[in-house]
Write a structure and sequence with these properties.
globular, 0% strand, 5 helices, 80% helix, mainly alpha
């Protein structure tokens, strides 16, 4: 049976609390209906995607390896900040409300922009490394 590192779990938990609080705060600041673009979820997902690309690349390629930074920032913080399940629910609600084009646009834009943002964050970290 594998051993459990309680400090790693605490790092994930701590990062998760911070990320979830930021996501909930964003959702409360920018409410939306089923026939409107869900800006709070979109913003949280794009921010979380950028930060995940930045943190993972930086931690893996630039900083000394540690046991707790990556679980705190990647798995915990970014994992709780981004919310694919909420995006799925929002798309389902849009479809149920008859907003098919909005649901399609939101899905395609979220996925395509997420990939672009992830690539941008990774390239930014690597560009700094090359010129440093």
């Amino acid at each position: 049976m594998p051993t459990v590192d309680r400090r790693e779990l605490a790092a994930i938990f701590g990062g998760g609390v911070c990320g979830a609080l930021l996501r909930v705060g964003t959702a409360q600041l920018i409410p939306h209906g089923t026939t409107a673009w869900p800006w709070s979820t979109f913003a949280a997902n794009m921010l979380g995607t950028f930060l995940l690309g930045y943190f993972v690349t930086r931690l893996q390629e630039r900083l000394p390896l540690t046991a707790y930074r990556r679980p705190f920032l990647g798995t915990g913080f970014c994992g709780a900040l981004t919310t694919f399940s909420t995006m799925q629910l929002e798309v389902f609600d849009m479809l149920r409300a008859g907003s098919v084009l909005l649901a399609l646009a939101y899905s395609v834009t979220s996925i395509a922009t997420g990939f672009l943002i992830l690539a941008t964050a990774t390239a930014a970290v690597r560009r700094v490394r090359i010129s440093a």
